[in-house]
Design a protein that fits this description.
Blueprint lengths: L4 E9 L1 E12 L6 E10 L2 E5 L4 E5 L2 E5 L6 E9 L7 E7 L2 E7 L2 E9 H12 L6 H26 L8 E3 L3 E4 L11 E2 L16 H9 L3 E5 L2 E2 L4 E2 L41 H9 L11 H7 L12 E7 H12 L6 E9 L5 E8 L3 E5 L1 H7 L10 E8 L2 E9 L7 E2 H9 L4 H8 L4 E4 L2
Parallel strand pairs: 1-13, 12-20, 16-23
Antiparallel strand pairs: 1-10, 2-3, 2-6, 2-7, 3-4, 4-5, 6-9, 7-8, 9-10, 11-12, 14-15, 14-24, 17-22, 18-19, 19-20, 21-22
Helix pairs in contact: 1-2, 1-3, 2-3, 2-8, 2-9, 5-8
């Protein structure tokens, strides 16, 4: 099997500015293109303009480097961290080809490149390029596994007559999950919705390239089937089960795992029970990801991730008025004054799967975990593993959320894996700790 080529959706705007460094050409043409350009939709075609030249291209046009090793292009004003607390725009540089596709009134910029070149960037974008070799190898394997599993999943979905559905709504309940099946023009997007990918903008190192090269084509698999290997920033001490976050499909390798080499003393692990979840979240159990070691955290967190240091346990305080306005803004539903937040169902890591919001005008149960996180924050709560402490403070009702972990908690815990790597665990040991029952196979 040859090394696969993949399509990564970078941005979608009404007009996109880009710069070609090195010589590029269009498919079926040898005309040399280089320098600064703008692209926008014009009818059914794409209009390309520069200082020296203007021309029309058919939809789905591709700019291809004459020399794939030296050719690179810049996309200007790419938004990163969409809807997160550190959202910003930046110019990003990429290897490979640049493809434009129109949809509605927008034009999509897509990077077409080798999966192994993609992985070198993902590893450097998801974490610092100065991470330990074993952590980098582990992340190369799970990122490669996840991507190939998603491509296969998308292929399977296209052969089914029944439409894939991620939202279920009634008058008093909304259950929704967020995955990548809405991408139809490309294999994956470039933001945290899929895997964080920022081309060669982030500095990489020989260590990252070595980690990808030494795991070339290696994936997690069970009986030849590539694992849908997930990861999040910090599980909070226990990982979550796949179907509690996404579609109701059980994966034997994405189960509840204690993020430790021993069971934590003094704790029950029946975290789907409210009293047990409260004790777990309000205390400080030992776990690989329960670390404040700046040396380790600096290795795996880019500058914008280090803007947040409360990974393992955290707290958010809303007044009743603040919460009521926030929920109305985020959902578009007027609940009136929020009078209560009631846990309905928790997963194995104490993450809330369903939460009842009680207001003076409306009562509704919402889920799954990301929908809860989006509803109760201007961006995203760190996780849905929280308990609700309702108090009266200075004559006003407050809802204090005490939480655990950062992210959905399924699969590999990045901070936990970083600590394991620092403690001397091999990448095989790290992977088999988080993905029980899986094995390593080389696919190409």
């Amino acid at each position: 099997m040859e090394t696969p080529q993949i399509k990564v959706g970078i941005m979608a705007e009404k007009e996109i500015s880009f710069t070609l460094h090195g010589n590029y050409h269009l498919a079926n043409s040898t005309t040399v293109l280089t320098g600064k350009y703008k692209a926008r939709k014009t009818g059914a075609e794409i209009y390309i303009e520069s200082i020296d030249d203007n021309f029309l291209c058919p939809n789905n046009v591709k700019f291809i480097p004459f020399n794939p090793e030296t050719g690179k292009f810049i996309l200007h004003d790419v938004t990163i961290g969409i809807n997160f607390h550190w959202e910003r725009k930046e110019n990003q540089t990429f290897k490979g080809s640049l493809q434009f596709i129109t949809d509605g009134d927008k034009i999509y910029a897509i990077n077409v490149l080798s999966i192994e070149d993609y992985l070198i960037s993902v590893i450097s974008s998801e974490m610092s390029a100065t991470s330990s070799m074993e952590l980098l190898k582990a992340h190369a394997v799970i990122s490669r596994s996840w991507l190939l599993a998603q491509i296969q999943k998308n292929t399977n979905l296209q052969t089914k007559s029944q439409k894939y559905q991620t939202t279920f709504r009634t008058d008093d309940e909304l259950v929704k999950w967020y995955d990548r099946e809405d991408h139809t023009h490309f294999d994956v997007c470039a933001d945290d919705h899929c895997q964080r990918y920022q081309g060669i903008t982030r500095s990489t190192t020989e260590v990252v390239e070595k980690a990808v090269k030494e795991t070339h084509g290696e994936v997690l698999a069970i009986d030849g089937v590539i694992c849908d290997a997930r990861f999040s920033k910090c599980c909070g001490g226990v990982t979550e089960v796949f179907e509690n976050v996404w579609e109701p499909v059980n994966h034997s390798y994405l189960q509840k795992i204690v993020d430790n080499n021993v069971l934590p003393e003094g704790f029950s692990l029946e975290l789907d029970q409210e009293d047990v979840a409260k004790k777990w979240i309000m205390r400080n159990p030992t776990a690989f990801c329960n670390s404040s070691d700046k040396k380790v955290l600096k290795q795996i967190l880019n500058d914008y991730d280090q803007e947040t240091n409360d990974f393992f346990r955290w707290k958010v305080d809303y007044s009743q008025d603040e919460l009521s306005e926030l929920v109305k803004t985020r959902t578009g539903i007027d609940f009136g004054t929020i009078t209560d937040l009631i846990p309905v169902e928790r997963g194995g890591s104490a993450r809330l799967i369903r939460l009842k919001i009680v207001g003076t005008l409306k009562t509704m149960t919402i889920g799954k975990e990301l929908e809860i996180r989006k509803t109760l924050s201007k961006s995203h709560l760190y996780s849905s593993a929280f308990i609700i402490d309702k108090q009266e403070i200075a004559g006003s009702i407050h809802f204090i959320l005490h939480g655990a972990g950062w992210g959905h908690g399924v699969g590999l815990c990045q901070i936990g894996a970083a600590v394991m790597g620092d403690k001397g665990y091999s990448y095989h040991e790290i992977l088999l700790h988080y993905f029980r029952g899986a094995g390593l196979e080389r696919k190409y």
